[in-house]
Amino acid sequence: MDRAAAAGGRLAGYAAISDIPDRGGDIVRRGAFGAGAGAGIPLLWQHGADRPVGRLLRAEEDRRGLRILAQFAAGSRGAAEAAALVRGGALTGLSFGYRTRKARRDRVRGLRELLSVELVEVSLVTFPMQPLARVVGLFEEEERENA
């Protein structure tokens, strides 16, 4: 079992990038997540509701996008596999599942602007819709505490 997952290790990254169109023609506008992005939201494997690998400890918008801190589920084989792939550089994408609260069409550019969304889940993915949504750090508990 991967050490990071076995110890309840953590990962940090960006699940969404603000104001840059994704491959599907959506653009998440700054402020779309509001103040209530929050903690406790599941961290999934490839958007599989039946494949949770952890949970978010924090999800906050900053100037770049939706910054997350997640904890792997200690003792989970799925979490161990995900952590090993992230550590090896084979799995670096992040994505998010959401419910649209408010959106509008930019008919000139052919985009859908997401103005307000409810965050439902964040997933580790192989191919993120937003190519810039990535894991930026993976660490074990003791490394984080000493940092």
From TrEMBL:
Taxonomic source organism: Pacificimonas flava
SUPFAM superfamilies membership: Herpes virus serine proteinase, assemblin
Keyword Protease: yes
GO biological processes: proteolysis
The name this protein goes by in its record: Peptidase U35
GO molecular function, one term: peptidase activity
Alphabetical UniProt keywords: Hydrolase, Protease, Viral release from host cell
Ranges for domain Prohead serine protease: 10-135
